[in-house]
Specification:
Helix content: 25-40%
Structural class: alpha/beta
CATH class of the largest domain: Alpha Beta
Largest sheet: 8 strands, mixed
Strand content: 15-25%
CATH architecture of the largest domain: 3-Layer(bba) Sandwich
Length: about 600
């Protein structure tokens, strides 16, 4: 911590800040919690349509038996396929509702879209493919193109069924297989099934009265309509030149697209409930000399280092970005707390958090010229209460004459009519509404994938978990034999770099499958004792601070302020991704029969 940071901490009025944080939180509490949102189904199903693929190619229904079926063709699907191939399992099928591989990067193509974790540790298979990212934080289109290259390299196109939606998956006890049916008439009998649809895959809409009455153009940010806006993820949205556009939301997607829309449209109305904490991205081009100096094994070494810094395990930082700068700052404060022992006062960590957020608010005041707008954009909560964001040019966009911030002070819009959005007694006529309202979270993986999964005794996964999550390592679930869940953060470790946890989990799953096949095991099911033990370990290792989360502004981090113990943070493994990896490796060296019923 430098002298300036220490002076800021000393000068802050912590009691006043704490009161302000609670006051701002209370403005945003909604009586319906996560139920305030609208699912993209039934009357709103069109919002889930694929704007990037043409009509589905006609094909005959497929009836087949495979060793494994992978649900989803995103990065998780690629990691899973690669892991299966490396253990000799080549007989698998990938089912993907989109028109190509890509997952998150297939759907999210909005202007300005980039990864915010350094490309070299986020983009899959860079080391294996020898591909140097053009920039430190790659554009969505570059990540998508690389994903397609990896899929070709692994010969996955011949194994994929695109524009195909799974209708049902049911366990057949007689054959020890999953029977999967699709909307294309396919019937696939799979020995194993892998969920790779991810925790943030189903778009949601805000439950604003009149949302269905709007007669202009409207779409979700993850279904961007370039036929209407023109341009691409680099901007140049010529179709918006004379358009009045409203963007609803100021979260992770919105803050990236707002600068691009603002520079292209006639007028932009930014509808804000809760301001985000946005810091500089500090992007730049990759240095070829540095790239060529990397030694074999660099990808995993750097990915593990990024995780270790985030967990406070080390201050030796190989990435040195704005993520790690804050983590190191909090780690130093945490060590001060440990040295000081238990006190009744404000912790050094909380003081560091107050100072961090005060710096962000000071940055906003410095950049945004209009003091009223600047004040409305200031975030009043702790750094981890919402996803930290790193974007260049966001606050500068509000200095443009054609940008208006509609700060709803946590309430959201009053209503939407045929040609306008309304807040209080103010109306704003618009031609286009873009919903940057995020995705469903904290739902079972079959809900995320869009179909019901029926295990033994006719019980669905949603029913199995209606009284709470039960699993082994967040990966295997009792009464759902031969099923694995990958990249689900509930009961598994979470990481800001999803690629590392995907690597760890897919290696684990592939090895379990290999051993089952080698030993002639046609069915494995989790023992109740194993689920009980992992549930106890989740509780023992939990680092979820319910008091902290309850004081956060509502959002997906704390389950929108309701049932906080069922939110993403509360139900993930608190020991961190590195210890989680060790646990899985140690478990694989044991007899599988200790925790699995093997048939």
């Amino acid at each position: 911590m430098d002298t300036g940071e220490m002076e800021m901490q000393v000068s802050l009025d912590y009691e006043t800040l704490h009161h302000k944080y609670l006051e701002e939180r209370d403005k945003r509490m909604h009586p319906r919690g996560i139920n305030q949102y609208v699912a993209v189904e039934d009357a709103f199903a069109d919002y889930d349509d694929d704007p990037y693929a043409g009509p589905a190619t006609e094909r005959a229904p497929i009836v087949e038996c495979v060793t494994a079926l992978i649900v989803g063709g995103g990065h998780t699907g690629l990691f899973t396929a690669d892991a299966l191939l490396k253990v000799g399992i080549t007989d698998f099928r990938i089912v993907e509702k989109a028109g190509d591989f890509g997952g998150t990067w297939y759907w999210n193509r909005y202007p300005g879209c980039r990864c915010d974790v350094e490309s070299t540790i986020y983009i899959p298979f860079l080391e294996e493919m020898g591909d140097m990212p053009e920039e430190r934080y790659s554009r969505a289109s570059d990540i998508l193109a690389h994903t397609h290259k990896v899929a070709r390299h692994l010969c996955l196109y011949e194994k994929a069924l695109f524009q195909t939606v799974i209708i049902s998956a049911a366990w057949d006890e007689a054959s020890h297989r999953w029977i999967v049916t699709t909307d294309r008439g396919d019937t696939i009998r799979a020995r194993f099934i892998c969920f790779g649809s991810g925790p943030l895959s189903r778009p949601k809409l805000p439950g604003i009265p009149g949302i269905e009455t709007f007669q202009g153009k409207a779409f979700h940010s993850s279904r961007w309509d370039y036929s209407y806006t023109g341009g691409n993820d680099r901007g140049n949205l010529t179709g918006l030149n004379d358009k009045r556009v409203a963007i609803i939301g100021t979260g992770a997607s919105a803050v990236q697209m707002i600068p691009e829309i603002a520079s292209s449209c006639g007028h932009l109305y930014v509808v804000q409930r809760t301001p985000s904490a946005v810091e500089a991205r500090d992007n730049g081009r990759t240095d070829p000399d540095w790239w060529n100096s990397l030694r074999p094994g660099w990808w995993e070494e750097r990915a593990v280092n990024f995780a270790a810094v985030s967990l406070g395990v080390t201050l030796d930082d190989q990435i040195s970005d704005n993520w790690s700068a804050t983590w190191k700052r909090f780690t130093i404060a945490g060590r001060q707390d440990m040295a000081a022992g238990q006190t009744d006062g404000i912790s050094y960590t909380q003081k560091a958090d107050y100072a961090k957020m005060e710096e962000i608010r000071a940055r906003i005041k410095k950049i945004v010229r209009d003091p009223v707008t600047a004040e409305a954009l200031k975030p009043w909560y702790n750094w981890y209460c919402k996803r930290p964001l790193f974007v260049d040019g966001y606050y500068e966009a509000f200095n443009r004459d054609n940008v208006t911030l509609i700060d709803t002070m946590g309430k959201g819009l009053t209503r939407i009519s045929e040609n306008a959005i309304h807040f209080g007694d103010q109306s704003y006529e618009v031609d286009c509404i873009i919903y940057a309202s995020g995705f469903e979270t904290a739902v079972p993986p079959d809900r995320a994938a869009g179909f019901a999964m029926t295990g033994m005794n006719g019980v669905t996964l949603a029913e199995r978990w209606k009284d709470g999550i039960r699993s082994l390592h967040g990966t295997f679930v009792r009464d759902f034999p031969n099923l694995c869940i990958i990249a689900g953060v509930r009961h598994a470790a979470a990481s800001w770099n999803f690629s590392l946890i995907q690597t760890i989990q897919t290696r684990h799953v592939a090895e379990v499958f290999r051993r089952c096949l080698a030993d002639g095991v046609t069915k494995f099911d989790v023992r109740k004792s194993a689920e009980d033990a992992w549930l106890a370990e989740i509780a023992r290792a939990s680092t979820a601070d319910v008091q902290f989360l309850s004081e956060c502004t509502p959002g997906y981090v704390n389950n929108d302020g309701q049932d906080i113990d069922k939110g993403l943070y509360s139900e993930s493994y608190g020991g961190g991704v590195l210890r989680f990896s060790e646990i899985l490796e140690e478990w694989r060296h044991r007899d599988l029969g200790e925790d699995l019923e093997l048939t």
